[in-house]
Fold this protein.
Amino acid sequence: MKIEFRFCPSCGSALSLRQIEGHDLPACPNCEFVAWKGPKVAVALVASDPQGRILVIRRGISPGRGGWAFPGGYVDDEEDPAFGAARECLEETGCEAAVDELAGVFHVVTEDGGLVVLAYRGRLTAGEPTPTPEAPELGCFDPEQLPELVFSSHRRAFDAWQAGRAQVD
Ligand SMILES: [Zn+2]
């Protein structure tokens, strides 16, 4: 859901559109407030188990409900994104993961606005994949047999993960 400012959160005046640096932005006529727009930041974790299989979930919630994806989600304010990737993995799958290097950064524009997805490579270190409301179905798959992923950013992340794996092998 996209939230638009209608009133100035600083002084309460009704906002009006003002052209600033080429963008029409809600701005306050009585003070300095401008509702600047920036992308949200999300993480995805491409985590492999000791057999080299990749953990994916069938999403139980929107966006992408019913589709397959890597564990991930929005980064909390003041949270290191790599920590967020491990946190989301644990919350969604019951699996602890070590987060290694960045696989890639992917920008997408959704109906809710811009999104920057940081995709990490990782390794599952403890725990068994356990269904949760966010991931009612999940499992580890051979990379060659991974289900079709619902998000374009995750498909690109998997491509980047595979390209990185080729360099390591
Ligand atoms: Zn104001």
